[in-house]
Write a structure and sequence with these properties.
Distance between the termini: 7 Å
Pfam family, one: BPD_transp_1_N
GO biological process, one term: transmembrane transport
Number of helices: 15
CATH architecture of the domain at 95-283: Orthogonal Bundle
Structural class: mainly alpha
InterPro entries: BPD_transp_1_N (IPR045621), MetI-like (IPR000515), MetI-like_sf (IPR035906)
Main location: membrane
CATH topology of the domain at 95-283: MetI-like fold
Oligomer: single chain
Helix content: over 70%
CATH class of the domain at 95-283: Mainly Alpha
Subcellular location: Cell membrane
Order of helices and strands: HHHHHHHHHHHHHHH
Amino acid sequence: MFNYILRRLLLLIPLLLAISVVVFFMIHLIPGDPVQIMLGDKGTAEDAARLRSELGFDEPLYIQYFKFLTNLVQGDLGRSIRNRNPVINEIKAAFPATIELTVLSMVFASIIGIAAGIVSAIKQYSIVDNLTMVGALLGISMPVFWVGMMLMLIFGARLGWLPISGRISRVTNLEVITNFYLLDSILTQNWAALRSTFSHLILPAITLATIPVAMIARMSRSTTLEVLNQDYIRTARAKGLPEKVVILKHVLKNSLIPVVTIIGLQFGSFLGGAVLTETVFARAGVGRLLINGILGRDFPVIQGAVIFIASFFIFINLVVDILYSYLDPRIHYS
């Protein structure tokens, strides 16, 4: 297993190199000049030439790429064209909002999807099965932005149960906690911020989980039906094991490999695929950072965000592959 993980990590080098090449040269095909966007209509040709020289845009593309790659190897993703902040800091500021939304969405999607799929398989061709599959079809068919706006309209605007946009950050200034007299106040603020953060997460998490719930439910049903027809399941039942034990101990674990694949792929794609959800609910995450970079022709932000998302996606795939050997002991990596 160690050799397999090491080999997979070494394969990241050429893969990330290929991604950097594609991203760097593709973004230069985007229509629009970032220099003209920054200067606006009042910028003169001399101002444009000076700014283009400062940003290094007057050099050939291969030289620009070589400089970008050199900085990337050193962990430097460059500076944003718009605000001159380091791109790594922009990503660090946006990542907490994305990861908390992603984790909550996948927990919700996994629990509901797996449970619905297993129940649907056990009660095949029943009303429960038909309703589950119809619901899964609707979940896959409905656009994410439409689901988000409907949830905002019903639970936010009409009923007023949940906030419809934004994100409340937790209190993170640890230096203040060193003051004993303010400890109770800080704990109270943290708890209030935690509740507020969770309430702001509910609607976007449900919105983002709509499609994964449907996909996981359909996959769980399919794999569960396949496992239920295996000889060892018949043997377990013939031995007199209770149905709950058969389902939880034998069926569930052996039907999870394809489901784990779906969960891993969805989790990785959420980091870049939450663009619509973060935009609809006005959450300043990595997806929104990426879309703002594209709209503003902020090349360093686009490059840094895409490489960060790709790296995380590859890491999630590695974790999923390792989980295979845990779920099925017959799988060995050499």
